[in-house]
């Protein structure tokens, strides 16, 4: 059986836009991904480690534990053996308290890739493959998240391109979710239910190809 770890933020946690509620597993994209792969005959387990507000490498001044680099090596050790780690981060790097640009966020992602590759695994366990997924391009934020993400749609310009460059440099897989979906029509930041379905199905096709190369 293949074991996939999804390491992300609220987009992958499945927060329902304009609420503090969560889509059920089969409705958020990691669940759609797992079900699609199993329907295609792939024996797979998808483990989610997704935290609302998680950044790549920055802390949140108001909430603890949002630096995505903290504890990542131990998480890889805990979850091993892994066939693939899917990294879906970057959105929160552009919250209003940060002055980051796309290049800086991508460098944060590069650090996460290095941490995964250096994680202390048991003898004989291989380092997992890595897929970097660029989040959907943010729209003008609306509703309760608008103050927290004010100006984020401008600061994040070029993120997908910068993440692709890092993926090529680090020789990991890359996918731009903007190829199949925009951000939420409701709040401009997260994913609506139908967008989770679209992204999960698209990533199932990508992961099926990656996993087949491991056989």
TrEMBL record:
Location of the SGNH hydrolase-type esterase domain: 6-197
Highest taxon, organism lineage: Bacteria
Alphabetized SUPFAM superfamilies for the sequence: SGNH hydrolase
Entry-linked Pfam families: Lipase_GDSL_2
InterPro entries: Ester_Hydrolysis_Enzymes, SGNH_hydro, SGNH_hydro_sf
Membrane-spanning residues: none
Gene Ontology MF annotations: hydrolase activity, acting on ester bonds
Protein name (Swiss-Prot/TrEMBL): GDSL family lipase
Source organism: Neptunomonas japonica JAMM 1380
């Amino acid at each position: 059986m293949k074991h996939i770890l999804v390491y992300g933020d609220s987009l992958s946690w499945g927060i329902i836009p304009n609420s503090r509620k969560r889509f059920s597993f089969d409705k958020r994209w990691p669940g759609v991904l797992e079900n699609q792969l199993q329907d295609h005959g792939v024996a797979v387990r998808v483990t989610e480690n997704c935290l609302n507000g998680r950044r790549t490498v920055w802390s949140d001044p108001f909430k603890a534990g949002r630096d995505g680099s903290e504890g990542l090596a131990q998480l890889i050790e805990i979850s091993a053996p892994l066939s693939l780690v899917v990294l879906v981060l970057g959105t929160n790097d552009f919250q209003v308290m940060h002055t980051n640009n796309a290049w800086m966020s991508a460098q944060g992602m590069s650090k996460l890739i290095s941490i995964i590759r250096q994680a202390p695994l048991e003898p004989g366990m291989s380092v997992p493959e890595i897929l970097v997924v660029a989040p959907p391009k943010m729209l003008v934020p609306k509703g309760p998240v608008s103050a927290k993400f004010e100006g984020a749609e401008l600061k994040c310009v070029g993120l997908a391109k910068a993440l692709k460059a890092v993926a090529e440099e680090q020789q990991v897989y890359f996918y731009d979710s903007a190829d199949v979906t925009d951000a939420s029509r409701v709040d401009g930041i997260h994913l609506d239910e139908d967008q989770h379905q679209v992204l999960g199905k698209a990533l199932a096709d990508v992961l099926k190809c990656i996993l087949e190369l491991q056989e």
